[in-house]
Specification:
Mean pLDDT: 93
CATH architecture of the largest domain: 3-Layer(aba) Sandwich
CATH superfamily of the largest domain: SPOUT methyltransferase, trefoil knot domain
Strand order of the largest sheet: 2-1-6-5-7
Shape: elongated
Helix content: 25-40%
Radius of gyration: 22 Å
Largest sheet: 5 strands, parallel
Number of domains: 2
CATH class of the largest domain: Alpha Beta
Order of helices and strands: EHEEEHEHEHEHEEHH
Number of helices: 7
Strand content: 15-25%
């Protein structure tokens, strides 16, 4: 998989993509992530990428020219399955969406800044708008990092245990069950006996019951979706 990201502040993405699982995926050749500085595509002598909003609205708007040039340049080199704009008014990102995107080959993401991007880019180029939550960030870089991380970890061969991703929270509209490790008893706090029983069937049944109970208690909205999928 290849992910290209257009950003005004590419430095923000240096750390997230050079550590942990993302770094492992890159080193294995399973994922490529390329961050492009939007200012490199500006035709302004000062490399500006924003301008005042028509209609006297507050705040600056990311200009159409550099974004259009960046998109056209990248699209001339390869075909993209999706051109994604990270936006607070996009549809809410979830695990099912991550699963779908993990099946794609090439993704292009545009990170918004200021009061957003010229609407003409959204109308003519963007194929998908994604929000990572009902709140506003300074820019779209952190949202792009979240999307990339959640998608790349699903690629075959990225995780050392490929079944791990299948038991993550939200995969079946359920939260993960509680987890424990050694020692089995610590300061009179004990691990549930069933986890020490060695009976795989009973353990799996217990985990499923715990996942349902935890989801019902902590995320009743998600629990309703689970009941609808059952």
């Amino acid at each position: 998989m290849r992910i290209d990201i257009i950003s005004v502040l590419p430095e923000i993405l240096e750390s997230p993509f050079n550590h942990s699982i993302i770094k492992r995926a890159k080193n294995k050749g399973l994922a490529e992530i390329h961050v492009h500085n939007l200012r490199d595509y500006s035709e302004d002598k000062h490399r500006r990428v924003d301008d005042y909003s028509f209609g006297k609205g507050a705040g600056m708007v990311m200009a159409i020219q550099p974004i259009e040039k960046a998109i056209e340049t990248l699209c001339s080199e390869r075909d993209y399955d999706e051109i994604i704009f990270t936006s607070p008014d996009g549809h809410l990102f979830n695990q099912k969406e991550a699963n779908k995107l993990s099946l794609k080959k090439n993704l292009l993401m545009i990170c918004g800044h200021y009061k957003g991007i010229d609407q003409r880019i959204r109308d003519h180029y963007v194929t998908m708008e994604i929000s990572v939550g009902d709140y506003v960030l300074t820019g779209g870089e952190l949202a792009a990092a979240i999307i990339a991380d959640s998608v790349v970890r699903l690629l075959p061969g990225v995780l050392s245990d490929e079944t791990s991703a299948l038991t993550d929270s939200f995969q079946d509209n359920l939260l993960s069950p509680p987890v424990y490790t050694r020692p089995a008893e610590y300061k009179n706090m004990k691990v549930p006996e069933i986890l020490l029983s060695g009976n795989d069937k009973l353990v799996e049944d217990w985990k499923h019951e715990q996942a349902i109970e935890r989801t019902k208690r902590m995320r009743p909205d998600l629990y309703k979706k689970y009941l609808g999928d059952e």
